[in-house]
Structure to design on (224 residues):
C-alpha cells in the first residue's frame, strides 16, 4: 500500500518568514495530493491540493509543488502570520476503484510573532 | 458548504463498555472514513466505506467495527472499550475525486 513520509515533524519560524513542509510517497499510482490544516480543537481542513498533471499550484501565500519522478511534493507558505500556526498534513490518493487516503504524520508549525 | 457532524465532542467511557461514535454528512458523499489521531502517529485509518452496507478495513481495525445502514451516516463501534482506545476520533467523507471533509472530532477517554 501507499506510504507517505512527512518532515519536519515540528517547525518554528519568525513571523514574515517562509515555511516549507515536504512529503514523499511510495505508490506511483497516486495522482492526487491534498494538504490539510488542523487548528487546535478542530478537524483538518483542506487548504490546497494538486493533481499529478500539474507541477505547481498557488493560492495567495500558499503554494504546492509536485515532482512525480522523485515522488515528492511540498507545501510552501510565504509571509507567515501567527494564524498560520497549526498542524499540517499531507496526503496521497490513488484514483480508481474506491478511494483510500494515506496521510503523512503531520507537521506542527509555530509562527513566532 | 459540506458539513460532517460527529455526535459528541467529548466522551468518557469505562473499560469494557460498548461505545458508539456517530457521524453524519449532508452532501450525499459515497465515501466515509474513520480515523484516530494520536500524538506522533498522525491520522491512522480504522475503517472506510464506499457505499451503503459496504465497509473495508483500514490500517488499524482491531477492536473496532463499523456500520453504514444509510448513505449519510457512518458509525464506529468499540465493542469493549479499552484504555488504549483513548484517542481523538475523526470522521471524514468525500466524493470520488479526493477532497475529504472532516468532522470536528470526538475526544474519547476510556477509564
Amino acid at each position: 500500500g501507499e506510504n507517505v513520509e512527512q518532515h519536519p515533524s515540528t517547525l518554528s519560524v519568525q513571523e514574515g518568514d517562509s515555511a516549507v513542509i515536504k512529503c514523499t510517497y511510495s505508490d506511483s499510482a497516486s495522482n492526487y495530493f491534498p494538504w490539510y490544516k488542523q487548528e487546535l480543537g478542530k478537524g483538518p481542513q483542506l487548504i490546497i491540493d494538486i493533481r499529478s498533471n500539474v507541477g505547481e499550484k498557488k493560492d495567495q501565500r500558499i503554494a504546492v509543488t509536485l515532482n512525480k519522478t522523485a515522488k515528492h511534493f511540498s507545501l510552501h507558505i510565504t509571509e507567515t502570520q501567527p494564524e498560520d500556526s497549526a498542524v499540517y498534513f499531507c496526503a496521497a490518493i490513488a484514483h480508481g476503484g474506491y478511494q483510500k487516503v494515506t496521510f503523512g504524520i503531520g507537521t506542527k508549525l509555530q509562527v513566532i510573532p | 458548504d459540506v458539513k460532517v457532524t460527529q455526535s459528541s465532542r467529548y466522551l468518557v467511557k469505562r473499560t469494557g463498555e460498548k461505545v458508539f461514535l456517530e457521524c453524519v454528512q449532508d452532501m450525499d458523499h459515497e465515501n466515509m472514513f474513520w480515523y484516530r489521531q494520536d500524538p506522533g502517529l498522525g491520522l491512522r485509518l480504522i475503517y472506510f466505506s464506499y457505499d451503503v452496507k459496504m465497509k473495508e478495513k483500514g490500517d488499524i481495525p482491531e477492536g473496532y467495527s463499523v456500520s453504514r445502514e444509510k448513505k449519510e451516516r457512518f458509525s464506529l463501534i468499540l465493542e469493549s472499550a479499552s484504555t488504549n482506545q483513548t484517542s481523538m476520533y475523526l470522521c471524514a467523507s468525500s466524493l470520488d475525486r479526493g477532497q475529504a471533509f472532516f468532522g470536528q472530532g470526538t475526544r474519547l477517554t476510556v477509564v
In short: DSSP finds no helices and eleven strands in chain B.
